[in-house]
Amino acid sequence: MKLGTHQAIQPGPPDGSCEQRGPLGPSQQNGAVPGERGKQDKSVKRGNWGNQIEFVLTSVGYAVGLGNVWRFPYLCYRNGGGAFMFPYFIMLVFCGIPLFFMELSFGQFASQGCLGVWRVSPMFKGVGYGMMVVSTYIGIYYNVVICIAFYYFFVSMTRVLPWTYCSNPWNTPDCAGVLDGNISSRAALNLTHLLNTTQKRTSPSEEYWRRYVLQLSDDIGNLGEVRLPLLGCLGVSWVVVFLCLIKGVKSSGKVVYFTATFPYVVLTILFVRGITLEGAVTGIMYYLTPQWDKILNAKVWGDAASQIFYSLGCAWGGLITMASYNKFHNNCYRDSIIISITNCATSVYAGFVIFSILGFMANHLGVDVSKVADHGPGLAFVAYPEALTLLPISPLWSILFFFMLILLGLGTQFCLLETLVTAIVDEVGNEWIIRRKTFVTLGVAVAGFLLGVPLTTQAGIYWLLLMDNYAASFSLVIISCIMCVAIMYIYGHRNYFKDIEMMLGFPPPIFFQICWRFISPAIIFFILIFTVIQYRPISYNEYVYPTWAISIGFLMALSSVICIPIYAIYKVCRSEGDTLLERLKNATKASKDWGPALAEHRSGRYAPAFSPSTESHLEVQPLQPEKGQSEAAAASPMQGSNGSAHSQDSRL
Can you tell me the distance from the alpha carbon of 427 to that of 431, in angstroms, rounded to the nearest whole number? Predict the structure, then answer.
């Protein structure tokens, strides 16, 4: 994934002698400054990705999750089909990619997790704690969704899928299976009449989901018993996540070669199978046919902005964490564009896979596609599995589909867990905890498993959807908005642009500078206003959540946001100064140990003599003899991995 690098003509040695310069070394090929060619550009203390492909694949796996499959296609057809693509890609360009680039560059420059990076402005460290709280909530319920996918994956290993017919003990008289030959005797109605009357058809897949897998209770407060099969699968999913992260990015970086790429193989297999079915074209046309009149609807633009924002994983802390393991001179500008576009292209591609099968199912039932279309768990565990029963060798397609869901979920879960572990280890920061990072990972995994147990009860799906709708909704928007303001206006956009130029060898393009300062914060604010205006109390099918449950949802949302003002007040009170204004200035001023983590990269305004407290946060690498000329080399042009040379002291 590395781009070609052109070697710039360098000035000769100061003594006028000739020096034969060989080809670029590995660190220079990764965007290193030519004058620093002897440096390792690696953090021995924290570790780095084995190569940049590992980082790109991990970030793709993090961004491409279950929402790409079960949310985007539904949003697209509901908001004008192909016409929805226009606001979707507008929001990608003006909000998605700029925010993605900001978070990657932020983490890579400081080589710190979501807490350590706030040395840039210590008063806003509460933003990092908010990110940790959000990642904790998402990590708890996300693995429960993965465990349900594991369960369906295991039960698909049979000759006949258990949700194919209505002849099972858990089925009701209203069950109407599309392949069941005993429908009329069960429901006293033929299938066609049943579908055309006000009586709602209950499919065998829906009854299997509600009455057998979940054994759904009648209220969120009625937890009932723990569903042991789901509990076992939850244990399996946490063990898999822990084993893949047992050595941090060193082990997960190898696993993503499979987990991030194989879902595309499965998507392609399902797509090829889907488009060969009768009615597939109808489903795809339903998905893509533009309804241009909806472009003028503010809700369409709000849905597009929200989908881009949540799909890319902004403000979760994962992007900052993953980028912190990059080499200092890695071209994260290139990576942000590649990953963002891959994420959105996957969403569009998944829509073809979903609607080709749903079109086939609608054609088989003789109904409109809208009657069978669904989103969220209803699509993944009810509508799509039912459609798969209509295919020959249905267990094979079911195994492939749920294996794909497992891999998509694991890619995101890896980063959520690593975000928490990295934040804890970086915050403590001593050698003892760094050597025992595996035990920290184990502790977080065990805690996540125990906190996920209530979600495997008979009321678990109610709690899962409550967390999904409130714990990671408007709080993410607020966190992201404050992060933009803190970096661009408190730390200062000129300082940040110089930091990026120091790291990449070129300043951020003018377009990104404008987006970061004005456009992206405005879009984030628009998403927040849209979320508030469009708010509706949560419900699940016909079940309406009680007021006390919604109150718990709001408390979960506030628990991450409240970290920001609480820590800000704490920091101001602890800062030096006789007046409140002096304390505010000291609390927002970048700390002395802010900057590149490796001593060899701290040049320019980061080069003053170290104090003992500063040295404790920096890692000094053994330098080669020619490093004595590094000061002279610092004045030479910097070369980024795009091959362009810039002066380190250039002004924007």
Answer: 12
